[in-house]
Amino acid sequence: MKLTSKGRYAVMALVDLARFDNINPVSLRDISLRQGISLDYLEQIFSKLKKNEIVKSIRGTQGGYVLNKNPNEIKLTNIFHAVDEKVKTVQCKKESKKGCNGKATKCITHNLWDELEIHINTFFENKSLKDLLNNNKETRV
Amino acid sequence: MKLTSKGRYAVMALVDLARFDNINPVSLRDISLRQGISLDYLEQIFSKLKKNEIVKSIRGTQGGYVLNKNPNEIKLTNIFHAVDEKVKTVQCKKESKKGCNGKATKCITHNLWDELEIHINTFFENKSLKDLLNNNKETRV
DNA sequence: AATAAACTTGACCATTTTAGTCGGGTATGT
DNA sequence: ACATACCCGACTAAAATGGTCAAGTTTATT
């Protein structure tokens, strides 16, 4: 099981954005420089964040992105969902009634992955951008 | 984030093993047939389970594998660790003091992944093979 | 002693995913 | 007009994944 960089970058970028968008929109270039994430890659990520109405864009000079909601309304679930970062149990639970492994029954560990998924999603549901912002005022080395 | 088949197969195979090893060792061939997992792939997985002392092997005809511990002593953590299925935060947390992203500080979401990892591992620590066995007596469609 | 069942080991490989890059746009403030 | 910034789709190198294949060794049974 692994977390991909895409999800990590999305969260990093949004925390960065939340910190600086109070006055003006924040350009991806700035985020790129501050967070050390490739600009081109950020564009892909923000395209998805925009489609999912997590951020708004302002084009042209002095343009950039701003949050589309309050930081406490943006849960990690939303962010991960937007960039296709999700908990996958691979080939299990795809077909609802067919069972796994091409057999007629659920595989013997099926319920386990369900539980795990719920467990992880609960964590994501309960974390908002705001939590991360607060958590980070106390930046320890 | 995704769970790989290797981890899933390892758990499935061990549940299968736990059910049948009361009398005789269980051959991978049997597990392969019952669970629909490639025999060659199972061999790779069991090689790792054996190195981690989760199973013992008996060679020769009528040989096979048996559990090396009681089902309630085998936690999911142990299984996943054995087959290299673990929560990875990718490039974060590799260097202990250097920080992430090649900078001198921790990335702003560093603590988050720590928390998540703890959250998930807690789930794995608290689940044993025995739990899965019990859970499965009530096999619902 | 021969045989067959089963574990053991290591190399190999096709496919998919990941983490980008690249090249062209279009909109807009100055 | 021009620079800054978003927009969009195609492309790609490298890694991970989910295996396969071949050539063993061990041991119970006949």
Catalogue the unreliable spans of chain A.
Answer: 93-98
Q: Give me the oligomer status.
A: homodimer
Radius of gyration of chain A: 18 Å
Class of secondary structure makeup of chain A: mainly alpha
CATH architect. name of chain A: Orthogonal Bundle
| Number of H/I helices of chain A | 6
Number of domains of chain A: 1
Mean pLDDT of chain A: 85
For the largest beta sheet of chain A, what order do the strands appear in spatially? Answer: 1-2
Looking at the structure, the CATH topology of chain A is Arc Repressor Mutant, subunit A
Distance between the termini of chain A: 28 Å
Largest sheet data of chain A: 2 strands, antiparallel
Biggest interface reads: A-B, 45 and 45 residues
Beta-strand fraction estimate of chain A: 5-15%
Helix content of chain A: 40-55%
How many strands of chain A? 2
What is the global morphology of chain A?
elongated
Brief digest:
Two copies of one chain form a homodimer. Chain A is 49% helix and 6% strand.
Written overview of the protein:
Two copies of one chain form a homodimer. Chain A has 141 residues and is mainly alpha-helical. Chain A has a single domain (5-137), classed as Orthogonal Bundle (Arc Repressor Mutant, subunit A). Chain A is built from six helices and two strands. Chain A has helices at residues 5-20, 28-35, 39-51, 76-82, 110-125, 129-137; strands at 55-58, 64-67. A two-stranded antiparallel sheet of chain A has the order 1-2. In chain A, a hairpin with a 5-residue loop joins strand 1 and strand 2 (64-67). In chain A, helix 1 packs across helix 3. Chain A is elongated and about 60 Å long. In chain A, 33% of the residues are buried. At the A-B interface, helix 1, helix 5 and helix 6 of A face helix 1, helix 5 and helix 6 of B. The first copy, chain A, binds a DNA duplex (30 and 30 nucleotides) through helix 1 and helix 3.
